[in-house]
Amino acid sequence: MATDGQKRMIAVFLTASFLLYSFYLYYAMPFKRDIKNQEASEGKLVWQRYNCNACHQIFGLGGYLGPDLTNEYSLRGHDVIIAFIKSGAPSMPVFHMTEKEMNQLVAFLKDVDRSGRADPRTFTIKSNGTIEQ
Ligand code: HEC
User: Fold this and answer.
1) Which value, in Å, is the radius of gyration of the alpha carbons in the chain?
2) Distance 118 CA to ligand 1 centre (A)
3) Cα(58)–Cα(73) distance, integer angstroms
4) pLDDT of residue 36
5) pLDDT at residue 92 greater than cutoff 90
6) Does the beta carbon of 54 lie inside 6 Å of ligand 1?
7) Does ligand 1 have an atom closer than 6 angstroms to the CB of 66?
8) Which among 8, 47, 66, 73 has the fewest CB atoms less than 10 Å away?
């Protein structure tokens, strides 16, 4: 049986460890706020503001009226994206955006494109069951 003195020592030790570790987490490893691509993060807001996700998917998530746009940037490129925004399509409305908004949106789609492939048909299944993109 631990004496009262030992219990107190343990309680002090645990409290001190907790405080030190909390301090370490919050001050020694600060949340990294460096946004690597400011234009792309503005573009994400444009994507949300005009609700492109109502009809399009990113990595398969979103509405299903239009195609998945995850890899639109590498498949079709900058000019096609701008053309669709400006001219629409039979079941896609015309969007009246500023040049700046369009460039931000394309920067966002470029960033999303870089993050991976969305089409599972392009994945290679390895012998251990994992996939490679
Ligand atoms: C009301 C639904 C709807 C909304 C909202 C919408 N789209 Fe579309 N979009 C479509 C449809 C449907 C197509 C397919 C048109 C076709 O091929 O005839 C399409 C096609 C596209 C294409 C060409 C895809 C390809 O490779 O064939 C791009 C790029 C695109 N949309 C971008 C956008 C962006 C950016 C937004 C948001 C600003 C947006 N769309 C909002 C319905 C929509």
Assistant:
1) 25
2) 17
3) 12
4) 76
5) yes
6) yes
7) yes
8) 8
Residue 35's pLDDT is 64
Phi, psi of 55 (to 5 degrees): -120, -20
Given the structure tokens 């900058």, which residue do they identify?
A: 78
0.90 cut: is pTM over it? no
Residues making up the chain, counted from first to last: 133
Amino acid type, 128: N
Sign of CA dihedral 74, 79, 84, 86: positive
- Centre of ligand 1 to C-alpha 91, Å, is 8
> Percentage of the chain surpassing pLDDT 90?
77
Q: Which two tokens stand for residue 78?
A: 């900058």
pLDDT value for 31: 63
Give the C-alpha separation, 83 to 95, whole Å. Answer: 10
Helix axes of 99-114 and 38-49: crossing angle, nearest 10 degrees: 110
- C-beta 40 within 6 A of ligand 1: no
Ligand 1 centroid–CA 35 distance in Å is: 28
> ∠62-67-71 over CA atoms, to 5°?
90
Q: Find tokens 């993109």 and name the residue.
A: 133
